[in-house]
């Protein structure tokens, strides 16, 4: 199907019943977020929805095609995004079951990635000062005798007494 002008906006409208939709230009196409969850992309005027092991067969059984772009230096790479049946592009109601599958896949992917982020260490407490600011204040509080030479005030020229 040739995509009409405004195809990205049309797809955003089809997904809007599932939450606030944000379109983001990327790689010559668009990314679509629902409630800040990346669930779809548009490439060459074709909509692809996110799928995973739990939903892939439903997309395949409906005649969906996987998103498989040519990547420089890597050849063709299959990514977990699939086309939807043509009729799903005609109404919110027809898109709804496919959108729910994509949202479910995106939520599962986010949940699987969450423990990886947690291993980086605990997040600073809300309102905690940044490390750089803490280090700067500590340096400012140190007595001049304990600071490095670069932190000490310059001595007056020889033969002159310091005002003081």
From TrEMBL:
The lineage of its organism: Bacteria, Pseudomonadati, Pseudomonadota, Betaproteobacteria, Burkholderiales. It comes from the Bacteria. Residues 114-164 are annotated as: Disordered. It comes from Piscinibacter sakaiensis. Residues 137-153 have a biased composition (Basic and acidic residues). Residues 13-106 form the TfoX N-terminal domain. InterPro entries: TfoX-like, TfoX_N. This is Regulator of competence-specific genes. Residues 114-132 have a biased composition (Low complexity).
